[in-house]
Amino acid sequence: MRLKLVFLITLPLICAQTQLLDYGERAGDQRLEFSAGQHATTMDVPVVYMEVPYSDIYISPNGIVGFGERLPDGVTPLQRLNRSAIAPFYAPASDGTVYYRSTSSDQRLLRRLTDYIHKTFADSMDFQTLQATIVTWDGIQNKENDGRATFQLALASDGMISYALIQFLALPWSASAGTYAQSGFAMPDGRYQSNTNSGGPDVKELVGLSNNPEGTSFIFRISGSVIEDPRENPDDYEYTNYDQTDYDGDDKKPPAQCPVDPYNDRCPEGCNILTDERMCSRCVCAEPQPDNAEGMTDDATHEKLPEPPHLARHNLIENRGPTNAVHTQEKTENSGDTRNEEEERRQEKERRLQQETQRERERLRQKIDERRREYDRHQIQRQQEERHKNQEEKMLQGSMHEGGQEQCKCLC
């Protein structure tokens, strides 16, 4: 029996505002229109993932990147993927755009990633990013069209050591087509590592969280025998033998710690049954169901669905009227608009900086060209003056020679 380990991060996370790396066609990205297929690309400097160098990556619109070989179609649980892959936000997608680029010449980006890694990993001071690959999933819709998610994966490599930087700008939904989104890493031997909240209703809370004090991202060293977190500490992880769990009895029997389903397995029409990676199932409805819903037990009719995590923290649903609910939604939308406006201002500022840098380079190039032309003019002028001087000297010597001959004739 092969041992499978999952690492669940339990340290408190840092809340901050996300700023994605520049992306889009203006940043030099290639745009991939939405399709169910995968896009393959080759990198000049290989990414080392779990001690194996890879030059080919496969980009899926479902929020996952594979190394060395194509990923299975659709969405597979990370514990059964058996591929080298990084999944920032892995779930069935129905629409959106994917941008990507690989660069070894964008020195500003390479330095930025290098500095970020140096600040996060104390033992990385010798690392210098030689190649960066940026993949951005922009405006990704789930099957239910609950909103557009935007997130990013950056791979930094020097050919021997590699890092993964994962950032989330907007995650308005947690599940798609009855499956919660997964975030983590998969290995060909069956091992996998899950990020915080992966495979559950709180996965969308990854927005604004970080596993390091330097930003709003999750950063990992991925080139060793294990995925390294900057918070690395044996006490920070829970280890679960999933093979043992699978063989302890009925594979379909949910674990004892699953939350109670208020509908008692009688999911009303129009609702969805969601299953997380613990194999826990729960009926979730987009709209509140009437208390006298057919098929519900007396206990279930008086039991409310669990509150969404971001509302439960602030008690915004319980005992509140429709006005407050609308106000809460407006505040959430305004907060999202503010983040988008700040991101647009930041991008505009960096775009102006890039333009100014380009103009400065152009001015410098023009100065160099002008100096070269001036030098050439001086060279031509000096050569002309030297030729003219040589001609005058020859003429003078010729005159002196003829004058000497005349004087000699007279004396004779």
From TrEMBL:
PROSITE patterns: NIDO (PS51220)
Keywords: Disulfide bond, Signal
Family matches, as SMART domains: NIDO
Basic and acidic residues composition bias: residue spans: 328-395
Chain residue ranges for the region called Disordered: 227-259, 314-412
Domain NIDO: 84-225
One GO BP: cell-matrix adhesion
Cleaved signal peptide residues: 1-16
Protein name in the entry: NIDO domain-containing protein
